[in-house]
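Can't paste images in this forum, so I'm doing it all in text. The chain is below; anyone willing to post the predicted structure tokens underneath?
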Amino acid sequence: MGDLARGFREALGRALGSGVSLTAAQAEQLVGHYLLLQRWNRALNLTSVTEFRKAVVVHYAESLFMAWRLPESVRRVLDWGSGAGFPGIPIAVVRPECFVWLVEARAKKVAFLKEATRGLTNVRVHWGRAEELGEKFDIVVSRAVNSVAVAKGARMLAPMFATVTGQHVAAQLAALPGWKSLDVVAVPARAGRVLVLGEFG
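Text version of the structure:
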């Protein structure tokens, strides 16, 4: 395992604690994604968080925290508004039993996602709207700013929805008609951020 992958696992362990279960191969895959993101970011402005350890905490730790708390029964995952590939790519890496659709409306970001997922056989990238897929999923996941709007659309595609967001948005989700919270838990090392997992009745 390379030094950067070792540093990735160490930073992730500090962020999430002793429950981290990441193989050397998975760490290498995620570091590969980070390095590609750094190169493409100069032209596409995919993220404002570029420093290695901060990116591990802000992007990868949040995404992996979600991945490891998704129900074991989940197999078909839709990442709505995937952007730079969060949380979908980390989910695909550590949950290989899942097939993950990355949906993104912006062509330049789609080009990045296609390049970033070349070695992942359990990922499909879709340019356009989620509704165009004509598929049903086990869960819709998102780290979009407007998680409430995404959740409202997600209920037509999957029975469950998960997001990492702030406390205020978590309260708005809890107030949606038919929404049942299954898991609301603080994300370690990310003050004010919570993972919300729920289903629609």
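Helices lie at 3-16, 24-44, 52-69, 88-94, 107-116, 147-154, 167-174. The chain has one domain: 3-200.
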